[in-house]
Amino acid sequence: MKIIAVVSMKGGVGKTSVTANLAAVLAENAAPDSIAVLNLDPQNSLHLHFGLGIALEAGVAFQTEKDGDWSELAFASDYNVINLPYGEVNEKQRKRFEACLSNHPDWIGKRLHQLGLPEDGIVLIDTPPGPSVYLRQALDCADIVIMVALADASSYATIPAMESWLGNMETHATLENCVLLLNQLEPGNKLNTDIATALANSYGERMIPYGIPRDDEVSMAFAFQQPLNHYSPDNPALEQFQQVVDWLPLDERYTA
Q: Whole-angstrom Cα distance, residue 58 to residue 40?
């Protein structure tokens, strides 16, 4: 089983949307019950990309040291993607969950491997922006880390700080398996293009060469609680999502 952590330095870069649409593209040619998404962001919105409003209240954040079985929290969707939502919790419950994660650095990894996904399964983990106990847990079990950023001045200035955190956290994931993905690219914007070129020169092979273009239909798909490939199957941005999936170092093809 491959575990992919999707991370970002700051909010507003479309990280959750990228997670959902990469999972949906992976699921198109995947065997049933082999693609899953785990939401470790307290905003708890990832499952809405898959039409699972029913999963709003239940979630992994209700689980602590004494009750670690996630099987009842794995919500099937109409898009061949299993969802593990964060859950709608109050402040006390959130702090309890975070204390559990702090006390048990391997908590998330163990729960994922107990889900019973097939050996060729893939789990994508959505994390809140910046350093957190959720990020540490995700990095400790991830095989691949996708750092999502915009090609703007703010991201250009803050990506080195994110790299520093990733390099100093002493987790299973290292900078060697961390790759940069640019989202919401605007080919007609010179500053956007110049920054994308500068980042490509800096990160070389660690930058995914297929950035995701800005497209209003990505937001519209979320409004209709569908992944992009179902809301607008002919959208050109889907080619970039597919290219990202094909580029990722996944050892095997996942076909039904």
A: 13
Report the SS3 class of residue 52: coil
In the sheet with 82-84, reading across from the earlier edge strand, the strands are 82-84, 35-39, 122-126, 2-7, 144-150, 178-183
Angle at 52 between CA 50 and CA 53, to 5 degrees: 130
55 band by pLDDT with thresholds 50, 70 and 90: low
Element holding 176 (H helix, E strand): none
C-alpha pair distances (Å), 92 with each of 41, 55, 89, 105, 242: 16, 20, 8, 20, 40
Rounded CA-CA distance 129/50 in Å is: 21
User: Rounded to two decimals, what is the model's pTM?
Assistant: 0.93
Q: Pick the closest to residue 182 from 164, 196, 172, 193 (CA basis).
A: 196
> Which domains, ranges and CATH numbers included, belong to the chain?
2-239 (3.40.50.300)
What type of residue sits at position 107?
A: W
Residue 203 scores a pLDDT above 70? yes
Percent of the chain beyond pLDDT 70? Answer: 94
How far apart CA 11 and CA 227 sit, in angstroms, is: 20
What does DSSP assign to residue 213? B
Query: pLDDT averaged over the chain?
Result: 90
Burial label for 33, CB within 10 Å (0-12, 13-18, 19+), is middle
